[in-house]
Amino acid sequence: MATTVKKTTTKKTTTKSVAKKTTTAKPAAKKTTTAKPAAKKTTTAKPAAKKTTTAKPAVKKTTTKSVAKKTAPVKTAVEISVNGNKKIGTLMKEFNKQFPYLRLGIFYSYARQEVAKGGTIYNIDRDKTLASVRRADSGGDISISGNKKIKTLEKEFDKVFGLYVQVCYTDKDGGRYYTNGYKDDLTLSAFNKKCEADGCKKGEWK
Asked: pLDDT tens-digit profile of 101-139?
């Protein structure tokens, strides 16, 4: 009978070891809590929203300063209108005002022959109009501008008014001359600038 009692005691000891093994499942449940840090990463989208505010400086570039420069008044060349009603003195004064280093000498047509002979010529009375001194078969209007060549202007006066005209200047020493040679191929503006650079006297239209 003593042998039957020992067999029952060995069964009790084996059941205890089985019970201990079932308790190992609890640590596995703790591992499922690692999903919480992943949820925090979704908050990084906020800095991206701040970048959209950089569009404001681009609006400041559309200033009107460059537009204001374009609307600045543009200087235009002044043309001198010449017709029969204009007085000689008025025309000479207007010419010198437009081209301060030049003078306009206006003579009767026969003065051309006197120049060829080396004689002395004199300006027409400045109180007379062009119509009163022009050649009988002539008449019309001309204009004087800076881009007109000296020889072209002199030919126009001869053709339209029948008058001998010379573009003149006064050098730095006070000598009074009229243009010839290559100078007649220059425009009025170009020759006026040359006289200024050479130190010629200005404002002596008389």
From this structure: 999 999 998 898 888 888 888 889 999 999 999 887 777
Q: Total structural domains in the chain? A: 1
- The Cα 190–Cα 150 span in angstroms is 10
| Secondary-structure percent of the chain, ordered helix, strand, coil, rounded to 5 | 55, 10, 35
Residue closest to 91 by CA, chosen among 120, 127, 137 = 127
Tell me which residue range forms the domain holding 154: 80-197
pTM of the model: 0.62
Residue 69 lies in a domain: no
Comparing CA positions, the residue from 43, 144, 35 lying closest to residue 86 is 144
Is residue 103 included in any domain, yes or no? Answer: yes
Q: Is residue 87 part of a domain?
A: yes
In a domain, 186, yes or no: yes
